[in-house]
């Protein structure tokens, strides 16, 4: 119990630390995004406007053009003889072009007005208030209008460091939850998990084949069940409940098999200490196996900043997990959900749930007939006779 509480405390403290690091690194993440777009930090804009630029840069229509640009706040006018080289972005105001913009003219939370003498060589993008082009105004690119763009909060601005920490914490939290579930299953159904683990230790090949066949039969079996229920009116009403029960049963088998596979891996890696009890040794094997299975996922999460390498490691982790769950599912089915030994043939009916046949007590003989077998023998009742030859 103390170890369990310690594990929960570690998960909570680590999650809180990750949140604090994420909040503190929001500004660094904004700078990192600007650098990814090939621009340096933007000056003369407020923090909210910087986040507005980040949000616009994440938009697929605007993209990095909003970062690699000249930035102005409030209403701004490009006069007739003025030329702005590159992109021009106006934040929280109206952009009026009377001169020339060699790039795109972008207004975030504002309008774009192209006068008759104005010329924009790129695109015209306006968020919230639209764009107006006079008859003689020229736009060489496209005209795009968007809805209002709200600035991102500090917690939603994710850079490489924050994204990696988030992935790491999410992966650790998932495996922490699985360990807690495994402890609960070990406490309540430890014997069933041990039978599944024993079946896994007997050989992986047969278990993988049975698990793979079971996965292929999951959907057809569900469809067949629904078709059979649809033959009757009552069965049609029971189809939603049958689907829910089927999904819950399948998830239960997958969880039991996956936990048993982790326990098998942990038992093969970590030797049992002599001082541990049987339940303690099972718990040690379960936790060790879960930690080993989590290593590839944690490595993939740590490589978030390198997408190709992270995808390769993530694929490897997925394959290892799938193999473990498939073998565990096969062992679970071979042991009838952990209720029988894998060596026990199908069709054998047990005399009692405990496995010990109940003693057969023959019934007493006197209860088999209405008349006891021992006692006074009944005699024939005398009857009166008539006739000349009778005597008294």
| Global geometry | elongated
Strand content: 5-15%
Q: Report the sheet with the most strands, covering strand number, pairing sense and barrel closure.
A: 7 strands, parallel
Determine the mean pLDDT.
77
In sequence order, what are the helices and strands, one letter per element?
A: HHHEEEEEEEEEEEHHHHHH
Count of beta strands: 11
CA radius of gyration: 39 Å
What's the end-to-end separation, in Å?
99 Å
Q: Which structural category do the helix and sheet elements fall into?
A: alpha/beta
Report on the architecture of this protein.
The chain is of the alpha/beta class. It folds into two domains: 17-146, no CATH class; 160-334, no CATH class. Helices cover 52% and strands 12% of the residues. It has nine helices and eleven strands. It has helices at 2-24, 26-36, 47-58, 160-188, 190-201, 204-229, 233-269, 278-302, 307-334, and strands at 69-73, 76-78, 83-84, 87-91, 95-97, 100-101, 105-114, 119-120, 124-133, 138-139, 143-146. Strands 1, 2, 4, 5, 7, 9 and 11 form a seven-stranded parallel sheet that branches. Strands 3-6-8-10 form a four-stranded parallel sheet, with no helix packed on it. α4 packs antiparallel against α8 (278-302) and α7 packs across α8 (278-302). The radius of gyration is 39 Å and the shape is elongated. The chain starts with a helix and ends in a 58-residue tail after the last helix.
